[in-house]
Amino acid sequence: MMTVPRTVCLGFLTLALVGTVLLLLPISTATGEWSDPINALFIATSAVCVTGLATVDVSSYYSGFGQLVVLLLAQIGGLGYMTVNTFLLVLLGQRFRLKEKIAIQQTMDLPGIDGARQLIQSIIGLTLLFELTGAFLLMFQFIPEFGTLKGIWYGLFHSISAFNNAGFSLFPDSLVRYAHSPFVIAVISILIIAGGIGYKVIMEGFLFVRDSLRKEPGRFWVSLNFKVVTTTTVVLLLLGTLAFLVTEFMNPGTLGGDNFGQKLLSAWFQSVTTRTAGFNSIDQGSMTKAGLFITIAFMFVGASPGGTGGGVKTTTMRVLAGCTSSVLRQKDEVICFDRRLPNDLIFKAVGVVFGSMMSVIVCTILLSWSEVEMDFIDLFFEAVSAFATVGISTGITAALSVKSKVIVIVTMYAGRVGILLLMSALLGDPKPSRIRYPEDDLLVG
Protein backbone atom coordinates (compact mmCIF):
# COMPACT_ATOMS: atom_id res chain seq x y z
CA MET A 1 0.00 0.00 0.00
CA MET A 2 1.37 3.43 -1.00
CA THR A 3 1.10 5.37 2.25
CA VAL A 4 2.11 9.02 2.70
CA PRO A 5 5.51 8.14 4.27
CA ARG A 6 6.27 5.78 1.39
CA THR A 7 5.22 8.39 -1.17
CA VAL A 8 7.56 10.97 0.37
CA CYS A 9 10.49 8.54 0.69
CA LEU A 10 10.09 7.25 -2.85
CA GLY A 11 9.75 10.81 -4.11
CA PHE A 12 13.10 11.87 -2.67
CA LEU A 13 14.70 8.63 -3.88
CA THR A 14 13.38 9.20 -7.41
CA LEU A 15 14.69 12.77 -7.44
CA ALA A 16 18.12 11.57 -6.33
CA LEU A 17 18.23 8.92 -9.06
CA VAL A 18 17.10 11.36 -11.76
CA GLY A 19 19.71 13.84 -10.58
CA THR A 20 22.35 11.10 -10.69
CA VAL A 21 21.56 10.32 -14.32
CA LEU A 22 21.75 14.00 -15.27
CA LEU A 23 25.05 14.53 -13.46
CA LEU A 24 26.50 11.44 -15.14
CA LEU A 25 26.12 12.97 -18.61
CA PRO A 26 29.16 14.52 -20.34
CA ILE A 27 27.23 17.80 -20.69
CA SER A 28 27.27 18.12 -16.91
CA THR A 29 31.04 17.99 -16.46
CA ALA A 30 33.54 20.74 -17.25
CA THR A 31 35.74 18.31 -19.19
CA GLY A 32 32.88 16.90 -21.28
CA GLU A 33 33.50 13.37 -20.02
CA TRP A 34 31.18 10.94 -18.26
CA SER A 35 31.14 11.45 -14.51
CA ASP A 36 32.02 8.82 -11.94
CA PRO A 37 28.73 7.09 -10.92
CA ILE A 38 29.43 7.19 -7.18
CA ASN A 39 30.34 10.88 -7.29
CA ALA A 40 27.22 11.64 -9.32
CA LEU A 41 25.02 9.72 -6.88
CA PHE A 42 26.71 11.39 -3.91
CA ILE A 43 26.31 14.95 -5.24
CA ALA A 44 22.73 14.33 -6.40
CA THR A 45 21.73 12.89 -3.01
CA SER A 46 23.54 15.68 -1.19
CA ALA A 47 21.67 18.27 -3.29
CA VAL A 48 18.23 16.67 -2.92
CA CYS A 49 18.81 16.27 0.81
CA VAL A 50 20.07 19.91 0.95
CA THR A 51 23.21 18.72 2.70
CA GLY A 52 26.13 20.26 0.83
CA LEU A 53 28.72 17.54 1.38
CA ALA A 54 30.66 17.09 -1.84
CA THR A 55 33.21 14.58 -3.11
CA VAL A 56 34.27 16.97 -5.91
CA ASP A 57 34.59 20.73 -6.28
CA VAL A 58 31.25 21.76 -7.77
CA SER A 59 32.69 25.01 -9.15
CA SER A 60 35.38 23.36 -11.27
CA TYR A 61 34.15 19.80 -11.81
CA TYR A 62 30.74 20.63 -13.26
CA SER A 63 29.80 22.74 -16.25
CA GLY A 64 27.14 25.44 -16.14
CA PHE A 65 24.52 22.80 -16.92
CA GLY A 66 25.79 20.54 -14.12
CA GLN A 67 25.74 23.43 -11.66
CA LEU A 68 22.17 24.20 -12.73
CA VAL A 69 21.16 20.58 -12.08
CA VAL A 70 22.69 20.74 -8.59
CA LEU A 71 20.86 24.02 -7.91
CA LEU A 72 17.49 22.69 -9.11
CA LEU A 73 17.88 19.55 -7.02
CA ALA A 74 18.65 21.69 -3.97
CA GLN A 75 15.63 23.89 -4.67
CA ILE A 76 13.28 20.93 -4.96
CA GLY A 77 14.85 19.25 -1.95
CA GLY A 78 14.52 22.40 0.14
CA LEU A 79 10.88 22.92 -0.73
CA GLY A 80 10.11 19.27 -0.21
CA TYR A 81 8.80 16.63 -2.59
CA MET A 82 5.14 17.03 -1.67
CA THR A 83 5.31 20.83 -1.95
CA VAL A 84 6.75 20.71 -5.46
CA ASN A 85 4.39 17.93 -6.53
CA THR A 86 1.39 19.89 -5.26
CA PHE A 87 2.60 23.10 -6.88
CA LEU A 88 2.75 21.30 -10.24
CA LEU A 89 -0.88 20.28 -9.76
CA VAL A 90 -1.74 23.93 -9.11
CA LEU A 91 0.06 25.01 -12.29
CA LEU A 92 -1.75 22.35 -14.31
CA GLY A 93 -5.08 23.49 -12.88
CA GLN A 94 -5.92 20.07 -11.48
CA ARG A 95 -8.07 19.62 -8.39
CA PHE A 96 -6.65 18.08 -5.26
CA ARG A 97 -7.81 14.61 -4.37
CA LEU A 98 -8.42 13.73 -0.74
CA LYS A 99 -5.21 11.67 -0.68
CA GLU A 100 -3.11 14.65 -1.76
CA LYS A 101 -4.74 16.91 0.83
CA ILE A 102 -4.04 14.39 3.58
CA ALA A 103 -0.43 14.03 2.37
CA ILE A 104 0.09 17.79 2.53
CA GLN A 105 -1.55 17.94 5.95
CA GLN A 106 0.74 15.21 7.34
CA THR A 107 4.00 16.36 5.76
CA MET A 108 3.49 20.01 6.76
CA ASP A 109 1.91 19.28 10.13
CA LEU A 110 -1.29 21.21 9.38
CA PRO A 111 -4.25 21.07 11.80
CA GLY A 112 -6.64 20.28 8.91
CA ILE A 113 -6.80 19.66 5.20
CA ASP A 114 -8.46 22.93 4.20
CA GLY A 115 -6.43 25.73 2.62
CA ALA A 116 -3.72 23.45 1.21
CA ARG A 117 -3.72 25.15 -2.18
CA GLN A 118 -3.34 28.63 -0.65
CA LEU A 119 -0.55 27.38 1.61
CA ILE A 120 1.45 25.97 -1.29
CA GLN A 121 1.08 29.19 -3.24
CA SER A 122 2.22 31.19 -0.21
CA ILE A 123 5.26 28.95 0.30
CA ILE A 124 6.34 29.28 -3.34
CA GLY A 125 5.77 33.04 -3.29
CA LEU A 126 7.69 33.51 -0.05
CA THR A 127 10.56 31.38 -1.34
CA LEU A 128 10.85 33.40 -4.54
CA LEU A 129 10.71 36.66 -2.58
CA PHE A 130 13.62 35.72 -0.32
CA GLU A 131 15.71 34.07 -3.01
CA LEU A 132 15.34 36.84 -5.60
CA THR A 133 15.94 39.56 -2.99
CA GLY A 134 19.04 37.73 -1.75
CA ALA A 135 20.32 37.23 -5.30
CA PHE A 136 19.79 40.91 -6.09
CA LEU A 137 21.74 41.99 -3.01
CA LEU A 138 24.59 39.55 -3.62
CA MET A 139 24.95 40.86 -7.17
CA PHE A 140 26.28 44.13 -5.73
CA GLN A 141 29.27 42.10 -4.52
CA PHE A 142 29.65 39.60 -7.36
CA ILE A 143 29.04 41.68 -10.51
CA PRO A 144 31.91 44.15 -9.90
CA GLU A 145 34.11 41.20 -9.02
CA PHE A 146 33.24 38.69 -11.75
CA GLY A 147 31.35 40.61 -14.46
CA THR A 148 27.65 40.88 -15.26
CA LEU A 149 26.64 37.38 -16.36
CA LYS A 150 28.87 35.51 -13.95
CA GLY A 151 27.95 37.88 -11.13
CA ILE A 152 24.23 37.32 -11.71
CA TRP A 153 24.70 33.55 -11.76
CA TYR A 154 26.84 33.59 -8.61
CA GLY A 155 24.29 35.76 -6.81
CA LEU A 156 21.37 33.52 -7.80
CA PHE A 157 23.22 30.29 -7.02
CA HIS A 158 24.37 31.31 -3.55
CA SER A 159 21.04 32.90 -2.64
CA ILE A 160 19.07 29.75 -3.50
CA SER A 161 21.67 27.54 -1.86
CA ALA A 162 21.61 29.64 1.32
CA PHE A 163 17.82 29.90 1.67
CA ASN A 164 17.46 26.15 1.16
CA ASN A 165 20.29 25.50 3.63
CA ALA A 166 22.01 23.48 0.90
CA GLY A 167 25.55 24.74 1.49
CA PHE A 168 26.79 24.38 -2.08
CA SER A 169 29.12 27.14 -3.23
CA LEU A 170 30.78 28.05 -6.51
CA PHE A 171 33.97 28.93 -4.66
CA PRO A 172 36.45 26.14 -3.82
CA ASP A 173 36.87 27.53 -0.30
CA SER A 174 33.12 28.09 0.23
CA LEU A 175 32.84 31.61 1.74
CA VAL A 176 36.27 31.81 3.37
CA ARG A 177 37.26 34.64 1.00
CA TYR A 178 34.31 36.69 2.31
CA ALA A 179 34.92 35.93 6.01
CA HIS A 180 35.62 39.62 6.66
CA SER A 181 32.82 40.99 4.47
CA PRO A 182 29.94 42.08 6.73
CA PHE A 183 27.68 42.60 3.69
CA VAL A 184 28.03 39.08 2.23
CA ILE A 185 27.94 37.43 5.67
CA ALA A 186 24.82 39.41 6.63
CA VAL A 187 22.90 38.55 3.44
CA ILE A 188 23.81 34.85 3.57
CA SER A 189 23.03 34.71 7.31
CA ILE A 190 19.55 36.21 6.86
CA LEU A 191 18.78 33.77 4.06
CA ILE A 192 19.97 30.80 6.12
CA ILE A 193 18.00 31.82 9.22
CA ALA A 194 14.85 32.60 7.21
CA GLY A 195 14.98 29.24 5.44
CA GLY A 196 15.74 27.40 8.67
CA ILE A 197 12.93 28.75 10.85
CA GLY A 198 10.22 27.70 8.42
CA TYR A 199 7.46 29.24 6.34
CA LYS A 200 4.76 29.24 9.01
CA VAL A 201 6.98 31.12 11.45
CA ILE A 202 7.84 33.76 8.83
CA MET A 203 4.18 34.26 7.93
CA GLU A 204 3.15 34.49 11.58
CA GLY A 205 5.88 37.04 12.18
CA PHE A 206 4.72 39.08 9.20
CA LEU A 207 1.08 39.06 10.35
CA PHE A 208 2.05 39.97 13.89
CA VAL A 209 4.23 42.89 12.76
CA ARG A 210 1.52 44.05 10.35
CA ASP A 211 -1.14 44.14 13.04
CA SER A 212 1.26 45.78 15.48
CA LEU A 213 2.00 48.57 12.99
CA ARG A 214 -1.73 49.00 12.48
CA LYS A 215 -2.03 49.28 16.26
CA GLU A 216 -4.15 46.15 16.34
CA PRO A 217 -1.97 43.91 18.53
CA GLY A 218 -4.93 41.87 19.74
CA ARG A 219 -6.09 40.90 16.28
CA PHE A 220 -3.45 38.26 15.60
CA TRP A 221 -1.84 36.07 18.24
CA VAL A 222 1.29 34.09 17.50
CA SER A 223 1.25 30.33 18.09
CA LEU A 224 3.23 28.31 20.60
CA ASN A 225 5.31 27.00 17.71
CA PHE A 226 6.30 30.57 16.79
CA LYS A 227 7.33 31.39 20.36
CA VAL A 228 9.37 28.22 20.79
CA VAL A 229 11.11 28.44 17.40
CA THR A 230 12.04 32.11 17.63
CA THR A 231 13.23 32.10 21.24
CA THR A 232 15.18 28.86 20.85
CA THR A 233 16.76 30.05 17.61
CA VAL A 234 17.88 33.34 19.16
CA VAL A 235 19.33 31.59 22.22
CA LEU A 236 21.21 29.05 20.08
CA LEU A 237 22.61 31.75 17.80
CA LEU A 238 23.89 33.81 20.72
CA LEU A 239 25.26 30.79 22.60
CA GLY A 240 26.94 29.50 19.46
CA THR A 241 28.57 32.84 18.74
CA LEU A 242 29.92 33.07 22.28
CA ALA A 243 31.08 29.43 22.32
CA PHE A 244 32.96 29.66 19.02
CA LEU A 245 34.45 33.02 19.96
CA VAL A 246 35.84 31.58 23.19
CA THR A 247 37.11 28.24 21.84
CA GLU A 248 38.65 29.63 18.63
CA PHE A 249 39.76 33.06 19.90
CA MET A 250 43.49 32.24 20.00
CA ASN A 251 43.51 29.49 17.35
CA PRO A 252 45.82 30.66 14.51
CA GLY A 253 44.11 28.27 12.09
CA THR A 254 40.70 29.94 12.46
CA LEU A 255 40.22 33.23 14.34
CA GLY A 256 43.64 33.79 15.90
CA GLY A 257 44.97 36.23 13.30
CA ASP A 258 41.88 38.45 13.08
CA ASN A 259 40.98 41.58 15.01
CA PHE A 260 38.08 41.43 17.48
CA GLY A 261 35.45 42.62 14.99
CA GLN A 262 36.50 40.02 12.43
CA LYS A 263 36.54 37.31 15.10
CA LEU A 264 33.03 38.25 16.19
CA LEU A 265 31.78 38.19 12.58
CA SER A 266 33.32 34.76 11.90
CA ALA A 267 32.04 33.34 15.20
CA TRP A 268 28.54 34.61 14.37
CA PHE A 269 28.56 33.05 10.91
CA GLN A 270 29.87 29.77 12.31
CA SER A 271 26.96 29.76 14.74
CA VAL A 272 24.50 30.43 11.89
CA THR A 273 25.85 27.97 9.35
CA THR A 274 26.52 25.15 11.82
CA ARG A 275 22.82 24.46 12.23
CA THR A 276 22.39 22.85 8.77
CA ALA A 277 23.48 25.57 6.30
CA GLY A 278 26.77 23.99 5.21
CA PHE A 279 28.72 27.12 4.24
CA ASN A 280 31.91 27.97 6.08
CA SER A 281 34.01 31.11 6.44
CA ILE A 282 36.78 29.41 8.44
CA ASP A 283 38.75 26.21 7.92
CA GLN A 284 36.75 23.52 9.72
CA GLY A 285 39.70 21.13 9.73
CA SER A 286 41.78 23.63 11.73
CA MET A 287 39.28 24.07 14.55
CA THR A 288 40.11 23.03 18.09
CA LYS A 289 38.69 19.78 19.42
CA ALA A 290 36.38 21.79 21.67
CA GLY A 291 35.17 23.81 18.67
CA LEU A 292 34.52 20.62 16.70
CA PHE A 293 32.45 19.08 19.51
CA ILE A 294 30.45 22.29 19.89
CA THR A 295 29.83 22.22 16.15
CA ILE A 296 28.68 18.60 16.37
CA ALA A 297 26.21 19.49 19.13
CA PHE A 298 24.73 22.40 17.19
CA MET A 299 24.56 20.35 13.98
CA PHE A 300 22.62 17.64 15.79
CA VAL A 301 20.02 20.16 16.99
CA GLY A 302 19.64 21.64 13.51
CA ALA A 303 16.95 24.00 12.25
CA SER A 304 13.21 24.20 12.93
CA PRO A 305 10.18 22.18 11.72
CA GLY A 306 8.82 23.29 8.37
CA GLY A 307 12.14 24.87 7.42
CA THR A 308 14.69 23.82 4.84
CA GLY A 309 17.23 22.56 7.40
CA GLY A 310 17.73 19.21 9.09
CA GLY A 311 18.68 17.96 12.54
CA VAL A 312 16.34 16.86 15.30
CA LYS A 313 14.88 20.42 15.27
CA THR A 314 14.80 23.21 17.81
CA THR A 315 11.29 22.38 19.02
CA THR A 316 12.27 18.78 19.76
CA MET A 317 15.12 19.86 22.00
CA ARG A 318 12.88 22.43 23.68
CA VAL A 319 10.35 19.69 24.50
CA LEU A 320 13.07 17.50 26.03
CA ALA A 321 14.43 20.47 27.97
CA GLY A 322 10.93 21.01 29.29
CA CYS A 323 10.73 17.34 30.32
CA THR A 324 14.01 17.66 32.22
CA SER A 325 12.79 20.82 33.94
CA SER A 326 9.54 19.08 34.97
CA VAL A 327 11.46 16.15 36.44
CA LEU A 328 13.73 18.46 38.43
CA ARG A 329 10.71 20.34 39.77
CA GLN A 330 8.88 17.05 40.42
CA LYS A 331 6.02 17.97 38.10
CA ASP A 332 3.91 15.40 36.27
CA GLU A 333 3.32 17.58 33.18
CA VAL A 334 5.44 19.61 30.77
CA ILE A 335 4.62 23.31 30.57
CA CYS A 336 5.88 25.60 27.83
CA PHE A 337 4.84 29.28 27.63
CA ASP A 338 1.91 28.59 29.96
CA ARG A 339 0.72 25.71 27.77
CA ARG A 340 0.69 22.01 28.70
CA LEU A 341 2.29 19.77 26.10
CA PRO A 342 0.42 16.54 25.20
CA ASN A 343 2.02 13.17 25.93
CA ASP A 344 2.04 12.07 22.29
CA LEU A 345 4.18 15.11 21.43
CA ILE A 346 6.64 14.21 24.18
CA PHE A 347 6.79 10.59 22.97
CA LYS A 348 7.46 11.80 19.44
CA ALA A 349 10.29 14.07 20.60
CA VAL A 350 11.89 11.21 22.53
CA GLY A 351 11.54 8.93 19.51
CA VAL A 352 13.10 11.48 17.16
CA VAL A 353 16.13 12.06 19.40
CA PHE A 354 16.67 8.38 20.18
CA GLY A 355 16.29 7.33 16.53
CA SER A 356 18.61 10.11 15.40
CA MET A 357 21.23 9.20 17.99
CA MET A 358 21.16 5.57 16.94
CA SER A 359 21.47 6.55 13.26
CA VAL A 360 24.52 8.72 13.98
CA ILE A 361 26.09 5.99 16.13
CA VAL A 362 25.59 3.34 13.45
CA CYS A 363 26.97 5.64 10.74
CA THR A 364 30.00 6.52 12.88
CA ILE A 365 30.71 2.86 13.63
CA LEU A 366 30.50 1.92 9.95
CA LEU A 367 32.73 4.82 8.90
CA SER A 368 35.27 3.95 11.61
CA TRP A 369 35.27 0.36 10.42
CA SER A 370 35.70 1.44 6.79
CA GLU A 371 38.26 4.23 7.32
CA VAL A 372 40.62 2.85 9.96
CA GLU A 373 43.35 5.43 9.26
CA MET A 374 41.16 8.51 9.74
CA ASP A 375 40.67 10.28 13.07
CA PHE A 376 37.54 9.35 14.99
CA ILE A 377 36.53 12.97 15.56
CA ASP A 378 36.58 13.63 11.81
CA LEU A 379 34.42 10.58 11.09
CA PHE A 380 32.01 11.43 13.91
CA PHE A 381 31.82 14.98 12.56
CA GLU A 382 31.09 13.66 9.06
CA ALA A 383 28.35 11.33 10.34
CA VAL A 384 26.51 14.08 12.22
CA SER A 385 26.92 16.50 9.33
CA ALA A 386 25.43 13.96 6.93
CA PHE A 387 22.49 12.95 9.12
CA ALA A 388 21.64 16.52 10.12
CA THR A 389 22.01 17.53 6.43
CA VAL A 390 24.48 20.26 7.38
CA GLY A 391 27.20 19.75 4.81
CA ILE A 392 30.26 21.16 6.56
CA SER A 393 33.24 18.85 6.80
CA THR A 394 36.73 18.74 8.22
CA GLY A 395 37.93 17.99 4.69
CA ILE A 396 37.72 14.19 4.52
CA THR A 397 34.69 13.79 2.23
CA ALA A 398 36.61 13.52 -1.04
CA ALA A 399 39.09 11.06 0.52
CA LEU A 400 36.41 8.59 1.63
CA SER A 401 36.35 5.14 0.05
CA VAL A 402 33.45 4.03 -2.14
CA LYS A 403 32.08 2.01 0.76
CA SER A 404 32.16 5.05 3.05
CA LYS A 405 30.56 7.27 0.42
CA VAL A 406 27.64 4.86 0.17
CA ILE A 407 27.29 4.93 3.97
CA VAL A 408 27.19 8.74 3.93
CA ILE A 409 24.67 8.72 1.05
CA VAL A 410 22.29 6.49 3.01
CA THR A 411 22.77 8.63 6.12
CA MET A 412 21.99 11.86 4.24
CA TYR A 413 18.84 10.30 2.81
CA ALA A 414 17.67 9.06 6.22
CA GLY A 415 18.32 12.46 7.75
CA ARG A 416 16.41 14.34 5.08
CA VAL A 417 13.22 12.27 5.05
CA GLY A 418 13.30 11.91 8.83
CA ILE A 419 14.07 8.79 10.80
CA LEU A 420 10.48 8.30 12.03
CA LEU A 421 9.04 8.83 8.56
CA LEU A 422 11.56 6.40 7.08
CA MET A 423 10.75 3.72 9.66
CA SER A 424 7.03 4.29 9.09
CA ALA A 425 7.57 3.81 5.35
CA LEU A 426 9.50 0.59 5.91
CA LEU A 427 7.23 -0.91 8.57
CA GLY A 428 3.87 0.40 7.34
CA ASP A 429 1.06 1.88 9.38
CA PRO A 430 0.68 0.38 12.87
CA LYS A 431 -2.33 -1.83 13.51
CA PRO A 432 -4.78 -0.57 16.12
CA SER A 433 -4.93 -2.56 19.34
CA ARG A 434 -7.38 -2.64 22.26
CA ILE A 435 -4.92 -4.37 24.58
CA ARG A 436 -4.15 -2.48 27.80
CA TYR A 437 -1.15 -3.80 29.73
CA PRO A 438 -0.81 -3.55 33.53
CA GLU A 439 1.32 -0.72 34.85
CA ASP A 440 4.57 -1.41 36.72
CA ASP A 441 7.54 0.53 38.07
CA LEU A 442 11.16 0.66 36.86
CA LEU A 443 14.39 2.15 38.15
CA VAL A 444 15.58 4.93 35.85
CA GLY A 445 18.63 7.20 36.10
The Cα radius of gyration reads: 22 Å
Please provide the count of β strands. Answer: 2
Report the biggest beta sheet as strand number plus sense, adding barrel if it closes: 2 strands, antiparallel
What assembly state would you assign to the polypeptide chains in this entry?
A: single chain
Order of helices and strands: HHHHHHHHHHHHHHEEHHHH
What structural category characterises the helix and strand content? Answer: mainly alpha
Helix content: 55-70%
Report the portion of residues in β strands. under 5%
Would you kindly provide a brief summary of this structure?
This protein has one domain. Helix content is 64%, strand content 1%.
Q: Which key phrases capture this entry?
A:
445 residues, two-stranded antiparallel ribbon, globular
Notes on the protein architecture:
A two-stranded antiparallel ribbon has the order 1-2. The longest helix has 31 residues. The protein is an all-alpha fold and 445 residues long. The protein has one domain. The chain is built from 18 helices and 2 strands. Helix 2 crosses helix 4 and helix 2 runs parallel beside helix 17. The protein is globular, with a radius of gyration of 22 Å.
List the helices and strands and how they pair.
Blueprint: H1 4-24, H2 37-48, H3 58-61, H4 64-79, H5 81-92, H6 98-107, H7 116-146, H8 148-163, H9 182-197, H10 199-213, H11 224-248, H12 260-274, H13 289-301, H14 314-328, E1 335-336, E2 339-340, H15 343-370, H16 376-387, H17 402-417, H18 419-427
Antiparallel strand pairs: 1-2
Helix pairs in contact: 1-2, 1-4, 1-18, 2-4, 2-17, 4-8, 5-7, 7-8, 7-9, 8-9, 9-12, 10-11, 11-12, 11-13, 13-16, 14-15, 15-16, 15-17, 16-17, 17-18
